[in-house]
């Protein structure tokens, strides 16, 4: 998979070099390139924003630098991802869909967002996804793009050491994951649930499923239609 990121803060993406994703990049499984939007400006001040038509607070990113930058990156096989608090909710299902694409391009907006004609224009040429991480506001799309890249990157075939661990985790079954324990069997007077030491695999599976349902009901009743 190839990932291109356009931003006015390229230095945000230095963390791509570490951890799981760094390994995927070294192995060539995922190739990333970060582009400075200001390289697609032509005025002395490298201006990327302007005041909003219709008035209002804040600044809006002008469409021309975005058009120039994206035209040099996208092909008909690209998916353009625009992180925005006004986007569709990003879920594990979205991550799975995006993990099957061969080219993701992230347009990281700052200020009050990007002139909407950028999304309109590229929607006529390629797949465009405006996505939101949740109901809160970040200053720009950079941190959101990093989260999306991590969620998608670990689902790219060949990425995780133990593929079974992907199926067992939170959200893959529509339920949160069960709690996990390791050695020692007793720590500060807290014992590991005895069933996990029983060797009875059927009982362990049943207990874990009960824990998943109880946990989901307690912290995310919306996931099982209980609100
Ligand atoms: Cl994707 N972008 C921004 N700027 N803020 C957000 C968000 C995305 N998701 C939640 N808040």
From TrEMBL:
Domain tRNA methyltransferase TRMD/TRM10-type: 1-225
CDD domains per record: TrmD-like (cd18080)
Xref: InterPro entries: Alpha/beta_knot_MTases, tRNA_m1G_MeTrfase_C_sf, tRNA_m1G_MeTrfase_TrmD, tRNA_m1G_MTases_N, tRNA_MeTrfase_TRMD/TRM10
Residues the record lists as binding S-adenosyl-L-methionine: 109, 133-138
GO annotations of cellular component type: cytosol
UniProt keyword annotations, A-Z: Cytoplasm, Methyltransferase, S-adenosyl-L-methionine, Transferase, tRNA processing
GO molecular function, one term: tRNA (guanine(37)-N1)-methyltransferase activity
EC number: 2.1.1.228
Keyword Cell inner membrane: no
Pfam family, one: tRNA_m1G_MT
Catalytic activity: guanosine(37) in tRNA + S-adenosyl-L-methionine = N(1)-methylguanosine(37) in tRNA + S-adenosyl-L-homocysteine + H(+)
Any single GO BP term: tRNA N1-guanine methylation
Cellular location(s): Cytoplasm
Subunit organization: Homodimer.
HAMAP family assigned: TrmD (MF_00605)
Family that this chain belongs to: Belongs to the RNA methyltransferase TrmD family.
Role, per record: Specifically methylates guanosine-37 in various tRNAs.
Name of this protein: tRNA (guanine-N(1)-)-methyltransferase
Origin organism lineage: Bacteria, Bacillati, Actinomycetota, Actinomycetes, Micrococcales
């Amino acid at each position: 998979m190839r990932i291109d990121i356009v931003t006015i803060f390229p230095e945000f993406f230095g963390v791509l070099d570490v951890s799981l994703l760094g390994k995927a990049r070294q192995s060539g499984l995922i190739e990333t390139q970060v582009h400075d939007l200001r390289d697609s400006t032509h005025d002395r001040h490298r201006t990327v924003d302007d005041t909003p038509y219709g008035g209002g607070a804040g600044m809006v990113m002008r469409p021309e630098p975005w058009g120039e930058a994206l035209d040099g990156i996208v092909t008909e096989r690209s998916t353009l991802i625009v992180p925005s608090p006004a986007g569709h909710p990003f879920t594990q299902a979205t991550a799975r869909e995006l993990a099957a694409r061969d080219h993701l391009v992230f347009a990281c907006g700052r200020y009050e967002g990007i002139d909407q004609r950028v999304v309109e224009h590229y929607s006529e040429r390629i797949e465009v996804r405006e996505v939101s991480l949740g109901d809160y506001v970040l200053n720009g799309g950079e941190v959101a793009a990093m989260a999306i890249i991590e969620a998608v990157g670990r689902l790219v075939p060949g990425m995780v050491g133990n593929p079974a661990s992907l199926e067992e985790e939170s959200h893959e079954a529509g339920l949160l994951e069960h709690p996990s324990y390791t050695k020692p069997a007793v720590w500060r007077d807290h014992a590991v649930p005895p069933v996990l030491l029983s060797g009875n695999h059927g009982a362990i599976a049943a207990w874990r499923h009960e824990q998943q349902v109880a946990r989901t009901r307690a912290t995310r009743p919306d996931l099982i239609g209980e609100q």
